[in-house]
């Protein structure tokens, strides 16, 4: 199999530097011919000598419409690569790109992304879905040149909701790594009882996914809407909220399942104030283990001022 | 009738700074409304707007998949009905097409007219953006009738010229403002804006000979007296109904050659060229020449010439360097060369 490594990110986010300093250096790449497909021609260039020494073939593609199955097959036939790196153009439609089939010999080896922290907040405010869409398949995301203005916690949580298994790394402008524990949560999780504000559900949901041990056996109290998916036992329900990660199109209901001693009946979407003990033991149909809540208290409640929780 | 200015440009290009300049210097005294569909690096603080008497309407869409162009029409209609302003400045989303915004606005049936379609382009990034951004960015450059280059002072003359050439490839008609913004005066900005409203007639005339009693070329002149001339002048100035009536009487056929250029001139070399133009027929029979250009020292030089007479004096910055030569049998390629245009 020919592994394909994909690097996404907007112009000037540091894709080429990532390819040079990480992908091509640290034994990531096997011996043999590497084809580097560049969908974008940024500031950083490759030294021809370096390319030659490392058996790297550059293939530049400018027009989005030219990127298709035939184009990739031609590369397979013409270069017979041992591995492929694709530098994505951050302004292209990511869905079309991701839906383009690779030659049958190829298989995705990894998807990585780079982000320029200097422009992140501005880009998020104005073209959020363009920034976010191309990060949806990434297993590793580096946010470089990160200043104080970047709300790292909020951005990490937004990424996590979109793609729970992604790893996010923040770097300071000097290139040093910012430890994740410096991110602030909008609520206090230190005591045995954690009470969430009406807008904090999204932040808690994501943090509990990443750091479940932080909440083990604690009592969590929050405002939620109650739903019971089809087929779920009458002793179980999901107290959760509608979360918006990008825009109105991607509002979805999120929550952890909760079991109760008694059978519960309610109308879908009823607003409730729940207190539940955080634990483990829920297994999804896909076999993944998820947190499981145990109901302590529930009562009906007034709807939240804003039905939707934002991860911004 | 309400005038509409649309200030487009990619994120970080400097739209907000340019708009501030427009509000503060160019449109002072007008009843203004600003419609923003973008949240820039620099917010326009409400104090500034209050002092300027500007109403501000924010369109809270934030992400382009939710940014319906239709919203513009709606916001604009509301603004016009509520405030009856002299002018509305619109800052659309930086990743949208300017032509879409123009179309949406044209569909609004109100008493208004689009006066300026501006694209603000970061001079340092134009090349990269043209190459990699594709449609929306190129659409902004193509649709604009004035292109404002930001951060031009941070570019070498050579890079700036390269940038202008790339922009020219996409848009041959627009006036391109290359002068650093700190030096830009109200008159120069208005001049650049004005030019574009007449681009069509300008183009029509470009390679034609026309009958004429050119009294001069308005390049770089903004005082009252010169303004009067406007209506009787060469194509570099962009106005002039009478150019539509070409007179093909061979005896009176003049050509005019005009150019916009960000080039910085060596004053001695410029003098030599002007002198040659005035005193010889090396570049054709020159009847009249006028220009305002930047010197290598950074100040601006204005020149005038008629056969046998020429003058170079200090000038005030225009939006870019501009030259206009009128005569017969002008050797345009040669002129281009000597003026480094």
Automatic annotation (TrEMBL), chain A:
Source superkingdom: Bacteria
Residues covered by the CobW/HypB/UreG nucleotide-binding domain: 3-146
Gene3D superfamilies with a match to the protein in the record: P-loop containing nucleotide triphosphate hydrolases
InterPro entries with a match to the protein in the record: CobW/HypB/UreG_nucleotide-bd, DUF1980_C, P-loop_NTPase
A Pfam family recorded for this sequence: cobW
Ranges for domain DUF1980: 191-310
Transmembrane segments: none
UniProt protein name: CobW/HypB/UreG nucleotide-binding domain-containing protein
Species the sequence originates in: Aequitasia blattaphilus
Lineage: Bacteria, Bacillati, Bacillota, Clostridia, Lachnospirales
Automatic annotation (TrEMBL), chain B:
Keywords, comma-separated and alphabetical: Chaperone, Hydrolase, Nucleotide-binding
SUPFAM superfamilies on file: Hypothetical protein YjiA, C-terminal domain, P-loop containing nucleoside triphosphate hydrolases
Catalytic reactions on record: GTP + H2O = GDP + phosphate + H(+)
Keyword Metal-binding: no
Annotated ranges, domain CobW C-terminal: 254-340
Biased composition (Basic and acidic residues): 224-239
Keyword RNA-binding among record annotations: no
Residue ranges of the region described as Disordered: 224-245
Residue span, CobW/HypB/UreG nucleotide-binding domain: 6-177
Gene3D superfamilies per record: CobW-like, C-terminal domain, P-loop containing nucleotide triphosphate hydrolases
Record family assignment: Belongs to the SIMIBI class G3E GTPase family. ZNG1 subfamily.
Protein name: GTP-binding protein
